[in-house]
């Protein structure tokens, strides 16, 4: 069985769904490598990819665009062509993974996977992650902590699991941040003691 390389991905967009709206930037970093049952960390700042993209439609949600801090006029003028950027991104994934299987990791996966998969298929015809090689960091925590998904928020995670890096809404910064979170969770034995203590004290509660 082939080893897997985990690629942490974060997306910023100017609306809720791809097609009618645009992905304005994305960041990727190598988070680690899984060989059988053994996970190895990688410095999340050592192998990275970042792109700011030219919008593909005239529609956008100002509030969504504002989250990224990017300027639409600048993106229209200077943003990378989506086909060129996605082709380069796919080549980068193949290069850093080598013979390993690439696995996309995100928090939450549903949003970032949706954008990346759509853009890869629309502009390159295929995804380097196939149609399902992905891991949801949110679900990973819920399973290891034995808590409902609604409780799988960063602020409710134990301190030793959370990343020490800030969440800035720059796509590369956030990809690096969640790479550290993934690494911590992959090496975390689980939360039986923490869960039992929470059940007694009532410290863990849904948002």
List the helices and strands and how they pair.
Elements: E1 4-13, E2 23-35, E3 38-41, E4 48-52, H1 62-68, H2 72-78, H3 82-97, E5 101-106, H4 109-124, E6 134-136, H5 137-145, H6 171-187, H7 192-201
Parallel strand pairs: 1-5, 5-6
Antiparallel strand pairs: 1-2, 2-3, 2-4
Number of domains: 1
| CATH C-level label | Alpha Beta
Main sheet attributes: strand count, strand direction, barrel closure:
6 strands, mixed
Rounded mean pLDDT score: 92
CATH topology grouping = Nucleotidyltransferase, domain 5
The Cα radius of gyration reads: 18 Å
Name the shape in a single word. Answer: globular
Terminal-residue CA separation: 40 Å
Low-confidence stretches: 194-207
* Relative strand content: 15-25%
Number of helices: 7
Question: Mind explaining what this structure looks like?
Answer:
This protein is α/β, with parallel strands linked by helices. The protein has a single domain (4-201), classed as Ribonuclease H-like superfamily/Ribonuclease H (Nucleotidyltransferase, domain 5), CATH 3.30.420.10. Helix content is 40%, strand content 20%. The chain has seven helices and six strands, in the order E-E-E-E-H-H-H-E-H-E-H-H-H. The chain has helices at 62-68, 72-78, 82-97, 109-124, 137-145, 171-187, 192-201, and strands spanning 4-13, 23-35, 38-41, 48-52, 101-106, 134-136. Strands 1, 2, 3, 4, 5 and 6 form a six-stranded mixed β-sheet that branches. Strand 5 (101-106), helix 4 (109-124) and strand 6 (134-136) form a beta-alpha-beta unit. The longest helix is centred in the last third of the chain and has 17 residues, at 171-187. The radius of gyration is 18 Å and the shape is globular.
């Amino acid at each position: 069985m082939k080893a897997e390389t985990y690629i942490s991905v974060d997306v910023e967009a100017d609306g809720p769904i791809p097609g009618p709206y645009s992905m304005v930037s994305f960041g990727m970093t190598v988070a680690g490598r899984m060989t059988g049952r053994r996970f190895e960390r990688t410095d999340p700042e050592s192998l990275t990819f970042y792109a700011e993209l030219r919008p593909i439609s005239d529609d956008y949600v100002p509030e969504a665009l504002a989250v990224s801090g990017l300027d639409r006029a600048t993106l229209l003028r200077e943003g990378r062509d989506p086909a060129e950027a996605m082709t380069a991104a796919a080549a980068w994934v193949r290069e850093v993974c080598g013979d390993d299987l690439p696995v996309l990791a995100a928090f939450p996966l549903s949003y970032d996977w949706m954008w990346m998969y759509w853009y890869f298929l629309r502009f390159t015809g295929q995804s380097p992650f196939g149609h399902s090689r992905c891991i949801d960091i949110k679900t990973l925590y819920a399973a290891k902590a034995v808590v409902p998904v609604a409780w799988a928020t960063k602020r409710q995670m134990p301190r030793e699991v959370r990343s020490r890096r800030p969440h800035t809404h720059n796509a590369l910064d956030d990809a690096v941040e969640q790479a550290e979170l993934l690494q911590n969770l992959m090496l975390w034995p689980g939360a039986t003691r923490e869960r039992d203590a929470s059940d007694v004290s009532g410290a863990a509660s849904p948002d």
